[in-house]
Every structure is written in structure tokens, then in C-alpha cells.
Records
---
Amino acid sequence: MTDTATLDLDFVRRQFPNLGNGWAYFENAGGSYLPQTVIKRMTDFMSESQVQPAALNPLSALSTERLDTARRLMARMINAETDEIVVGPSTTLNVYVLAQALRPLFRPGDEIIVTNQDHEANSGAWRRLAEFGIEVREWRIDPASGELDPADLDGLLSERTRLVCFPQVSNIVGSVNPVAEITAKAQAAGAMVCVDAVAYAAHRLMDVKALDVDFYLFSLYKLYGPHVALLYGKRERIQEAANQNHFFHEDNISAKLNPGGLNYEAVASLSGIVEYFEAVYQHHFAQPENDLHARLGRVFGLFAEQEQRLSEPFLAYLADQPGVRLIGGGTPGDRRLPTFSFVVEGRRPAEVVEALGGERIAINHGHFYAHRCVEGLGIDPEDGLVRVSMVHYNTGHEVDRLIRALDAVV
Ligand SMILES: Cc1ncc(COP(=O)(O)O)c(C=O)c1O
């Protein structure tokens, strides 16, 4: 056991079977790799306990216990209570269900604020409520940087605002929005907030209580897990929302926003995400720490430092390229996550992606379903932007390869 402040990359990379494939993987904002702990939990569930939970037999008890444990750990991970979270199929579907559940609380003439920075998941379902007489206002990005200015929200909030929807960080822009500040503003005006944390989850510790958010969502397949997604709602908010499940689930707050059967094997595997973080904690920190959320916080601290080490040379390289337009603020750290979107003068984004693919460097291009954001930046969404997205398991050597390969096309 060591007590080092630096992330042991060899240790970390050994946990992810996909990292042995020879590719430098920089499409993590699309979906991250999974550690062995998650894969094992899923296959264990399927081979040992793939039976209906909550039945009166010991096999079912094992299935129930695995699902309950996963839900409890996911709640602890974000500092929520277990009955305040819903694990559903995707963030897009979770927002859709939530919009249906909140609609009966709104009256014609009530207002919802959405942004043009969001992925469409936290935008389209809210905008569609205009069909029911709800007024939808748009909080717009700065067309040069792609950033949202909280001061602009003041002019949009009114006594009729019921909800403000925005991302903690965009999957394109990379600059972190000050969620606690925005939430306090919205709540002071009497509105709730719905925050998309999908592009944030892999990078920093989440804490729904510290942020005081009403609703908060993220997808586990971007946080080293399978294709399911988590919706958090303050207990009283879920209680007042309209049931979207069978009538007999009306008073079951963990079921009412979760219509349809769950993907049990995927849910059970979520414990493997926490198991991975626990393994990293134990490998790096000698002193015991009783609180899981605090242990996760220390591990995310190691991840943040590694992300910084990766980001600095890449940002310095991009800043030196006169033909490159980088979206979002340029300083790495708490205000800038390692999601870098850019366009290269005289090159189509697809060309850049293909050229790097030839060097076994995986990046992507497009509008990444943040269509309105790309348009708001004055960029044609059909071509979109080039996106390079890093997480803690990327290496400095991979960044060197990335810079060399990019240099041949820029
Ligand atoms: C910021 C952001 N929000 C929402 C989503 C949608 O998540 P899901 O695929 O779980 O619906 C994505 C997916 O790329 C995303 O990047």
C-alpha cells in the first residue's frame, strides 16, 4: 500500500480490459471504457442471480440484495438518499419521463428556461411543453466562446418561471457552469432546476446536496458503467410529481418515475463502478476513511490532477495553432474539463477524424446531439466540430501521439 498523491496509471489501466487494444482512446465523452469490476458484476448477476427480485425464495433474495446494493451505492456516490434516485434506460428517456411527470404541475403561461448549450436530452422534452401553453425561454451561449453567462439569466427569470434546465458542463464546450450559483438564483425566483451532469460525471465528485439541485441527471456509460442512467430528484419534488408508472405505484417514490422493467443485470453491475473507485482508493491512500463519498472525493482528486497533466500540453499546442478555433475557456482545472471541441481552418472535421483514425487514435466529430449549441457557435451542425475528450486513464504518451498526428493535418 502506498500513500502517494499521484495516480498510478499502470494500476488504473490494468483495470480496463479495452485499454489493451493499442488505440489511444479520446472519445470518452461519447462513452467511457468499463473496468473489469463492472463487467464481472454484470456476468455474475447473469450467471448466478438472473431471477425476478423480491420473490420469496433464496435465489431471488440474492438478486434483490445485488440490486438494492447497487442503488444504495449509486445514491451514496452523489450524496443522495436511496429513494431519491431512479435508474432508468437513458438520460434522454429519464428527462422525457420527468417532463411528463412535472407537466400537470404547470399552468398555461408558466415559464421554463432552457439553454442552447445543452445536449438535446435536457432541452427537447422541455421545449415540447410549449404545446400545453407553457412559455419556453432560451438562455443563449456567447456565440464566440460557447459559454453561458449566469448574469444573462437575470433577464429571463420572472415570477412565472417554474423551471430552469441547464448542463453542469456541455458535452461540447468543456467550461463548467457554476451550478450552485445558478441554482440559488433560480430558486430565489421560485423556480426549480434540472441539471444535466452527463458530461461532468466522469471527471469530478458529484454532490447533489451541496449544489441543492431539484433534479440532476447523468448516464452511467460515461462514468465507467453500462448503458443505464440515473435521475436524482429531491424527495419532495418526486412526491409532488405525477406518477408515470402503473397506478399501484402511485406512492412508491422510487418507482413512479420509472415505467417499464429495469435492465437488472446492468443495474447490478453499477456496484462495480464503486468497487473500482474503492480499489483506486486503497491502492493510493493508507489512512482509512469511513465515508464513501469522501473516499470517492479523494479518488476524483487524483483523477483531476491527471486530467490537468494531460490537458496542459494539449491546450498549449492548440493555442499555438493559428488555424484552430477552440470552443470554451482555455484554462484547465475546476472550470475546464478535458473535453476539447475545435474546428480547423481549411479542413473538414471528418478529414481530421479519419486521419487520426489511421494512427489508431479514436476521436469523433459532429454536433454530438448538441445541435443548437453548434448552430449557436455559427458552425454548420452537419459538419460539426472535432472533439477530443480525455479521462484519467489516458496517458501523456497518448497525448504526445495525438499532438503529432494532429500536427500532420492542421
Ligand atoms: C451532455 C449529455 N447529456 C445527455 C446525453 C444523453 O444521454 P443518453 O444517451 O443516456 O440519453 C449525452 C449523451 O451523449 C450527453 O453528452
---
Amino acid sequence: MSARLDGRVALVTGASRGIGAAIARRLAGHGAQVAVHHRRGAEDARAVLATLEGEGHFLVAGDLGDPESARGVVEATVDHYGRLDVLVNNAGVFVQHPPLSTDWDAWVATWNDTLGANLLGPAHTSYWAARHLGEGGRIVNIGSRGAYRGEPNAPAYGAAKAGLHQLTQSLAVALAPRGISVLGIAPGFVETAMARPHLQGAAGDAVRAQSPFDRVATVDEVAYWVLCACMPDAAFASGAIIDVNGASYLRS
Ligand SMILES: NC(=O)c1ccc[n+]([C@@H]2O[C@H](COP(=O)([O-])OP(=O)(O)OC[C@H]3O[C@@H](n4cnc5c(N)ncnc54)[C@H](OP(=O)(O)O)[C@@H]3O)[C@@H](O)[C@H]2O)c1
């Protein structure tokens, strides 16, 4: 893609590995200065930072399940750069908790942790980012195909991602008068640590066969669409949720 993001500051949450790391690399490769966010993976995040093209990238930490910490991540980025142009809400957790075989304490804890990281975190970072993003500003939320198909073994995940898609659309309307666009990306399975347990053996073959391409997405294929969503010409696509699932699930 020849369009560039020079002079723009992007905060990418959960950029210590997986899809977030690929997004950070894509955005930096197109000229953005990137705040690489992590929670526990400081060493991984430092390694990602070291691979980014260009100058002036920044490391920022915080548990997005904690509202004040979510606020702190945005504010630390703005304090460092003096501006914010792009927020990518990518951080998330996937924990299995089948309703019929999960004990009560684990059920409650998983709902709280999953909604905290996957839905409330993005809501709170967006709240603070909206106070700093200007005309042309962008919020990109990493949702999931699971929001549409359901997640029988991880219902909190499916519910959180459905909520995140709806948050995307609500904020698209609410923030448009400020010139801020809000888009979502809904990947199917992607080759990362989060998906790895589901991609082994016969079960993995079945997952790949969900797509007529007979494979799952690479992190770079997801990062490509995040880059597109961040480009100035994508502003009017605000409110769109872009499927990146290899035609494994089609919705009209
Ligand atoms: N992989 C897939 O198949 C797939 C499919 C559809 C959608 N997605 C979505 O894509 C996004 C990235 O997934 P991934 O596969 O790249 O995941 P991953 O490899 O497990 O990485 C998750 C990232 O999120 C961060 N994180 C998790 N909980 C956090 C919290 N409470 N506060 C702050 N940061 C937190 C982790 O930080 P630390 O490691 O530093 O703790 C890590 O950087 C997620 O939103 C996921 O739901 C993934």
C-alpha cells in the first residue's frame, strides 16, 4: 500500500505478541509512531519494539481490565507524544468455560476477566482516546467471527466480541461529529498463541476446513486490514465490521 501514516501516533493494545505485534509492525512500516502496549509480556513487547521500522516508538504497560489502568495507558501515550491519532483495541483473552462443565467460581471469574479485557477495556480506552483524537482520528477494534457464530465453549468471549462490535457501531455514530471514524475487524481463527491449542491434530484440520481455502489467517492478513482501516481514505467506512475469515462464515 503506497499511502502512509507519517506523523501519526498509534496506540496498539496487546502488541507484545500475535496479531497486535503484527499490527504494530504494519503501522510502523507505513510511517506511524507506535505505542506498543502490553500487560505482563514486557520482554516480548521490548522485542517487538526493537523490530519496528522508523524512530520514536514507545512502550506502555497496563491491565486493561482495570478502568484506571486503561485510562493510564492512553494518558501515558498522549503525555509521551503530545497527541494521539489512532487507537487499535486489540488486547484480548480467550478462556474456555463450557457452561455444563465449569464450576461456579471459574465461571464467574472467567466472565469478569473476559468482559474486562475484551469489552470494558476497549470502552474505557476509547473514552479517553476520544478526548485526544482529532479530525481524521481512528479507533479500530479487533472483534471476532465468534460474535456471529457463537462460542459454545467460551460464551463470555462470544458475548464480549458481540458487545465490541456494537460498541464500534455506537461510537462510529457518537464520534463522527468530531471527525473520528471507528471500524471493527472480525477475524476467524488466526495462527497465534491464543489459537494454537485449537489448531493441533484432527481438530486443527477441522478448523482449517471451515474455510474453503483450507487454512486459517496469518497475523499479517489481519494487520493488513487494520492498516487499511487506519488510512485517511477509510474514514467514511466508519461503523463497518470487516470480516477476515477466509469465507468460513458469510453474513449478508
Ligand atoms: N487468534 C485468533 O484466532 C483470533 C481470532 C479472532 C479474534 N482474535 C482477537 O485478536 C486479538 C489478539 O489476539 P491474539 O491471538 O494475537 O492473542 P494473544 O497472542 O493471546 O495476545 C493477546 C495480547 O493481549 C494482551 N492482553 C490480554 N489480556 C490483557 C489485559 N487484561 N490487559 C492488557 N493486555 C491484555 C496480552 O498481553 P500480555 O501478553 O503482555 O499479558 C497480549 O499482548 C484479541 O482481541 C483476540 O480476541 C484472535
